[in-house]
Amino acid sequence: MDGDADNSSAPDSTFFAEINEIRNVLAKLSDDVASMKIRQHSLLAQTIVEEEEKDKLDECISGIKHRAGLLRRHLVAMKTNVEMMGGDKNSSAVRRIRRNHIEALMKKLADLLEMFNAAQIDYRAQVSKRIKRQLDIAGEHLTEDEVNAMVDSKSPQIFNRSVRSTAVRSALDDATSRHNEILNLEASIQELNDLYSDLAFLIHVQGVTVDRIDQNVGSAVHYVATGGKQARVAVQYRQAEMRKKLFCVVALAIFILVLFLIITIFFATR
């Protein structure tokens, strides 16, 4: 008997061990996002950006995207497996519990991706400001819209200028470097947006399903309450009918008894 209990609980133990492992990965992912923000702030504060620092930031971002993608696929696979579980009463309850755990982790991952994306967008805006400052130093006094148009351009040649001053050349080189960084950021942001949209869609669909379940439960409660009232009315009506029938039977019995007595007395007096 104990052996059977251990065997039945083994799948649950494996599942929750997997859930805890994913929580740990999410916690590590959150730390990586925080580390990325620190690196971004450090790069923005540097007058001359060292390639080594940029490489470390790129490596950090790539690691976040890679782990987030693996997590997303793993969670979707787990959810698919849960939906394919058997349909008896016990497995239905287990399926519901497991689904809730998985979707909670999906929500955490989606929130983390949203935070990551917001940090990327903010960093892009700060880099654009840095480009404008460097262009001002180089004597290229452009409006914010003109700078944004240059930033949005995919051409690597937009910052090439015929200049003699070393300082101006350095400023333009920095602007070019920052522009290349923005191009990489945009690709990263788009990739994470797609990943986030997939998760958000899955969570939204499940949310609609939950809302429908709530509505169905509410309707069921209403129908049960209405049915209960109708049942009570039917019972009361049935009781009234029984009383009427009983009254008729008693009245008929009394009538027959009285008639019998009258006939008996009539013949007795003759």
From TrEMBL:
Signal peptide: none annotated. It comes from the Eukaryota. PROSITE patterns: T_SNARE. Keywords: Membrane, Neurotransmitter transport, Transmembrane, Transmembrane helix, Transport. It is found in: Membrane. GO terms for biological process: exocytosis; intracellular protein transport; neurotransmitter transport; vesicle docking; vesicle fusion. It holds the Pfam family Syntaxin. One of its GO terms (molecular function) is SNAP receptor activity. It is a single-pass type IV membrane protein. Residues 172-234 form the T-SNARE coiled-coil homology domain. GO terms for cellular component: endomembrane system; plasma membrane; SNARE complex. The chain crosses the membrane at residues 246-268. Belongs to the syntaxin family. This is t-SNARE coiled-coil homology domain-containing protein. It comes from Gongylonema pulchrum.
